[in-house]
Every structure is written in structure tokens, then in C-alpha cells.
Amino acid sequence: VVESINAKSLGVLNGHPSNNVPASVAAKIGMNLHLRQHHPLNIIKTRIEDYFTQSPALREPRPQIEVHDSLAPVVTARDNFDSLLIPPSHVSRRATDTYYVDDKRVLRTHTSAHQVTLLRRGAPPRAFLVCGDVYRRDEVDRSHYPVFHQMEGVRVFAPDELPAGATAAEREALAVADLRAGLEGLACALFGDVEMRWVDAYFPFTNPSFELEIFFGGKWLEVLGCGAIERDVMRAGGMDDATVGWAFGLGLERLAMVLFSIPDIRLFWSDDARFTSQFKAGAATTFKPYSKYPPCLKDVSFWVPGATAEIAHGFHDNDMYEAVREVAGDMVEEIALVDEFAHPKTGRVSKCFRLTYRSMDRSLTNKEVDALQELVRQRLVDKLGVELR
Ligand code: PHE
């Protein structure tokens, strides 16, 4: 009997004082959209795997590629941050940005969280792909959702794959050349004959680091981040100093939205047959939107808790976004800050947000939106202690 992975089996709903995982997010654990046959995320995942296992463009000989697509999304903060050299003060570690299960464990914010653990599993040559759900507290709009999916690729070279007597700089240059060629091939396999460019980037765990952009639909789109694996990450992964490797990471929703013209990230979670029936593994697909239902806009204004602007600083917009999602679920499409000011005398801070309600599947009635908005307002008071205006 295979025990299924879900919030309960992973102990995510545990009442720990550091726990900030709402039930609506916990409920996504174990849904594994990336493993569902004919789901657009699975189609992209499979195309990427096929490219790395089969493309004749890649340099031979190559190690057998391991695919890890069912690793549990609860990882230690150490694996998610420290082992990747992300500094203790980095914003991404804050409880406003990351879901903490307890004081030691988080819902992974990226698939890079598995790099060091997987590196430790074997000697080079190694090549592995990691695919799974990742979690971030973030804004609310058509391209952001607290859960999304990433694909990570890692390649570690054995000494005999590189010229004997090569210097450290030469080995690194070979790894980077292999990385670039492999990922340019991947972009071609996914997008066809597109224009692309490399942009210098920064990640604490790779050096040098790059982003690949493609010219698609009239603009430059960032498709992935990558680089030569940082020496201290290699060491933590049990590799000696003569070993080099590269890593890349990409977001599957982003690629799928571009490739299939999917206009809203909430659609990936839809069970509506008008969405799901449009994707067939292998076949090239452009999503044909079924009728778009009218949006309904509602503003909410409140005084942020705290007597002065300085104290009000503790309020984070991500808390507001999450409170709305908890009440309205996938019926909220976007939340935009439309006004903010500090009272000239009292110093209290006021914010006004515009909420766009729209269902992906049906028309919402005025009555139900009014009821939702009332629940949202109440929630903001109860959970965040704001004073409605
Ligand atoms: N983990 C990075 C992110 O989520 C992407 C990345 C992976 C960059 C591997 C470099 C190497 O943005």
C-alpha cells in the first residue's frame, strides 16, 4: 500500500506557532497536477523530459537521466535556503513570503530545495530532473497563484568527461557551454525556431548565473534561470573540487500559459471539461477560451493596524491577499492596491484595494459577490485586525 502524500500525512496542519499554511493551500498538497495525464502541465513536463532523454542535439555520451517527480513538498528550511547559500536575512525567507510548517520546515519555494540531497545520492556523472509543486505567498492576479510547478535540471560531470589537465576556469567554461547549448535546444524543442538571448542574472547557488529569454508574441519573455553550480553547493552535495556541474529551473505554468495561450493561472486547477478536454498529450494545442464571464469590481478601504506609520509597517499586503483567497478561493482574479496614505495628524496608514471577482466557469450573481465581499471584509477585521473605513 502506497501511503498518499497529503497535508495530513505530512503533518502540515499542526498548529505550530510558526505555521502559516492556510487550509486552502494545504488542500493543494498531493493534487500533483504535473502527474495528471493530458493536463497541460504534464504535457510540458513530458516534452522537457523527452528532450533531455532523447534529443540527438545533446552531446553524447550522456548519463542515464533520473526523474524525480514525486518528492514531498515539505522540506527543511536548511534544504530550501541554507544549503543553497541564501543569506539568513534574505526577504524570501520571511513568513510574509514563505509558508512555514513549523520553525524548521517549509513548503518548498523552489525545486532547487532538492539539489543538495540528490547530489549526495551518487557519484558523477549524474543528470537528474526534479518536477513538483512549489509554494509562495504572493500577489493575486492572472499569473500568480500560491501553488505552482517547477522543473529543475542538474548535470554533474565526471573528471573523465572533461579534458585532462583543464584548469578550474576551463572546466567551468565547458559546463557553461554545455548548459547553454542544452537549454537553447530545449527552447527550440518547445517554441520552435524562435529568437533567444542570454541575460546575466544572480542566484546565490549558481555562479555564473543566467536567464534565457525568447522573443515570443512580440515581446521578450524570461523562460528559465540557470548557471554553474556554486562550489560550496557542490561541496555540500559531497562533490570534490575537481567536479563541475550546472543547474536550471523553470516554471511550468508560465511556459504552458505562453505555449497554449492559457490566459489565467486558475484554469490549471479547473475541473471544467471545457478546459481539460482541450489538451491531449503530444498534440500541439492552442487553448480556445470558452466565453469569458463578466468581472465584478469591489473596493475595500481600511486603516492598517498600528497607531503610526512606523508600527503599521508590520502589515504586509500578502496577508491581505491570502485572507481574500481564503474566503473567495478561485473567484478572486486580481487584487490591486489603488490608494495608500498616512493621516497627516495621527500618522495612521490607510489602504484601498480593488478586488476583481470573476469565475472561470460561470457568471457570478451580484448577490453572491455582495455576500463574498461582506465575508472578505469581516475576515480582514477578524484575521488582520484592520479597521474598515
Ligand atoms: N530556483 C530558481 C528560482 O526558483 C531557479 C534556478 C534553478 C536558478 C537552478 C538557477 C539554477 O527562481
From TrEMBL:
<dbReference type="InterPro" id="IPR045864">
    <property type="entry name" value="aa-tRNA-synth_II/BPL/LPL"/>
</dbReference>
<dbReference type="InterPro" id="IPR006195">
    <property type="entry name" value="aa-tRNA-synth_II"/>
</dbReference>
<keyword id="KW-0436">Ligase</keyword>
<keyword id="KW-0547">Nucleotide-binding</keyword>
<dbReference type="InterPro" id="IPR036690">
    <property type="entry name" value="Fdx_antiC-bd_sf"/>
</dbReference>
<keyword id="KW-0030">Aminoacyl-tRNA synthetase</keyword>
<keyword id="KW-0067">ATP-binding</keyword>
<feature type="domain" description="Aminoacyl-transfer RNA synthetases class-II family profile">
    <location>
        <begin position="72"/>
        <end position="289"/>
    </location>
</feature>
<dbReference type="GO" id="GO:0005524">
    <property type="term" value="F:ATP binding"/>
</dbReference>
<keyword id="KW-0496">Mitochondrion</keyword>
<dbReference type="InterPro" id="IPR005121">
    <property type="entry name" value="Fdx_antiC-bd"/>
</dbReference>
<dbReference type="InterPro" id="IPR004530">
    <property type="entry name" value="Phe-tRNA-synth_IIc_mito"/>
</dbReference>
<dbReference type="GO" id="GO:0005759">
    <property type="term" value="C:mitochondrial matrix"/>
</dbReference>
<dbReference type="GO" id="GO:0004826">
    <property type="term" value="F:phenylalanine-tRNA ligase activity"/>
</dbReference>
<dbReference type="GO" id="GO:0000049">
    <property type="term" value="F:tRNA binding"/>
</dbReference>
<feature type="domain" description="FDX-ACB">
    <location>
        <begin position="291"/>
        <end position="389"/>
    </location>
</feature>
<keyword id="KW-0809">Transit peptide</keyword>
<comment type="similarity">
    <text>Belongs to the class-II aminoacyl-tRNA synthetase family.</text>
</comment>
<keyword id="KW-0648">Protein biosynthesis</keyword>
<dbReference type="InterPro" id="IPR002319">
    <property type="entry name" value="Phenylalanyl-tRNA_Synthase"/>
</dbReference>
<dbReference type="Pfam" id="PF01409">
    <property type="entry name" value="tRNA-synt_2d"/>
</dbReference>
<dbReference type="GO" id="GO:0006432">
    <property type="term" value="P:phenylalanyl-tRNA aminoacylation"/>
</dbReference>
<dbReference type="Pfam" id="PF03147">
    <property type="entry name" value="FDX-ACB"/>
</dbReference>
<protein>
    <recommendedName>
        <fullName>phenylalanine--tRNA ligase</fullName>
        <ecNumber>6.1.1.20</ecNumber>
    </recommendedName>
</protein>
